[in-house]
């Protein structure tokens, strides 16, 4: 079976990370895979913000947790968070950003890095303080948060494959 298909079948969401920081080279490889995701009419509207600064990462975790009504770390102690946002002017921006998220998670898996899609990026980057933060790092425009990806080395056993449900494929011959 092809390596890509095997990675798709084996990748799992990780919810317990070691505190060890990923190398910049590893993060850059994962980001590169993300920016090569397909996009509607090759518009390439999604952007990726890599957060490796612990103070910013912890502030993001706090606001994300408050949105979901929790105090626990929604990033599961991952040392790196990649934020995927996309330009709302593009008609396919949500789909384009979702493809970036998928590429990121598959690339991470292929490099021995655990990942988990964390929601509430949309709500986070609707908050004026966080919109201003995006502007402060140089991201101008009307972007919507598509998702966050928690990245890090897996702490513990890698999750088992869960069997796929029947009745999800239909053929029209």
Describe this structure in words.
With about 170 residues, the protein is an alpha+beta fold. The chain has one domain: NADH Oxidase (3-Layer(aba) Sandwich). It is built from 6 helices and 4 strands. The chain has helices spanning about 5-10, 25-35, 55-65, 95-110, 120-125, 130-135, and strands at about 45-50, 80-85, 115-120, 145-150. The chain has a 4-stranded antiparallel beta sheet with strand order 1-2-4-3. The longest helix is centred in the middle third of the chain and has 18 residues, at about 95-110. It is globular. The two termini are about 25 Å apart. The mean pLDDT is about 95.
How would you summarize what this structure contains?
By secondary structure, the protein is α+β, with helices and mostly antiparallel strands. Helices cover 38% and strands 16% of the residues. The longest helix is centred in the middle third of the chain and has 18 residues.
Q: Considering DSSP H and I runs of 4 or more, what fraction of the residues is helical?
A: 25-40%
* SS elements, strand count: 4
Count up the domains. 1
Structural class: alpha+beta
Which keywords apply here?
4 strands; alpha+beta; single chain; 4-stranded antiparallel sheet; NADH Oxidase; 173 residues
Helices and strands in order:
Blueprint lengths: L2 H8 L13 H12 L11 E5 L2 H14 L12 E8 L5 H18 L3 E5 L2 H4 L3 H9 L6 E10 L21
Antiparallel strand pairs: 1-2, 2-4, 3-4
Helix pairs in contact: 2-4
